[in-house]
Design goal:
This protein is of the alpha/beta class and 229 residues long. It has helices at 22-29, 47-53, 67-80, 100-108, 129-143, 162-165, 177-187, 210-226; strands at 9-15, 35-41, 57-61, 85-88, 114-118, 158-161, 192-196.
Length: 229
């Protein structure tokens, strides 16, 4: 933590073509953070302009480089901004910023280095079965052989201590980065915990092919588990 009694909290929001939601996400997130950094990963709409008008610092990629690359750039900017805690959440409105204090508390109380907002600690009925199945497979691959297991390896709603961020090195540009962070944190002896969150899936749906996405991340998990990275 910094020298003051209150930690500096910065939110990082990686996003792509989220002009319909980004204003509300930024506005609500600012209530709980000192700064908001939006990493626009090559949007072709007005995501950047709307985010900036809502009070966010914007990092703009000319073309889409992937969720991992966007998150890494956000982490680097937050560290340069002397963040003590960095919270990530999605820009599509599926995460509720009002639940942010729940993620922050374990780090502020020095009980965790990383807190994952899990969709599966408490029962939810709004997650499609194929999506839940894919997440379960990826999470199983991460948990296999581990003494400490988690329920939601693919949640983008997370809080990270500065200590943790300085101990990891994201090399995966795609969505496999989410598990890479977990694997590296575990190997560094970081304390990872989960808290329950709600989740809203909007009617627009995801631009990702869920099967292709799931297979890609699962293969990345296997690759990362087999190597010391």
């Amino acid at each position: 933590m910094n020298d003051s009694t209150k930690p500096k909290i910065i939110a990082v929001i990686p996003c792509l073509n989220e002009q319909d939601f980004i204003r509300d996400v930024v506005t609500r997130t600012r209530k709980y953070t000192d700064e908001v950094i939006v990493v626009d990963d090559g949007s072709t709409d007005d995501t950047s302009g709307i985010a900036r008008a809502a009070g966010a610092q914007v990092i703009k990629h000319k073309t889409s480089r992937g969720a991992g690359a966007a998150t890494k750039d956000g982490f680097n900017a937050a560290k340069k901004g002397n963040a003590d805690i960095v919270v990530t959440l999605d820009g599509d409105g599926q995460h509720n910023p009002d639940e942010m204090p729940r993620l922050l508390a374990p780090i502020i109380d020095a009980k965790a280095d990383m807190v994952i907002g899990s969709r599966f600690i408490e029962p939810q009925t709004n997650i499609r079965r194929y999506r839940k199945f894919g997440i379960d497979v990826i999470t199983f691959l991460y948990n296999f052989g581990s003494k400490v297991t988690i329920t939601d390896s693919q949640s983008g709603f997370r809080a990270h201590s500065r200590k943790l961020l300085e101990s990891i090195n994201i090399t995966e540009d795609s969505f496999g980065f989410s598990v890479q962070v977990l694997i590296q944190a575990r190997r560094k002896g970081m304390i990872i915990t989960e808290v329950p969150i709600s989740c809203i899936y909007h009617s627009q749906g995801s631009t990702l092919n869920p099967v292709r996405h799931g297979i890609s991340v699962a293969l990345t998990v296997v690759k990362l588990r087999l190597r010391r990275s």
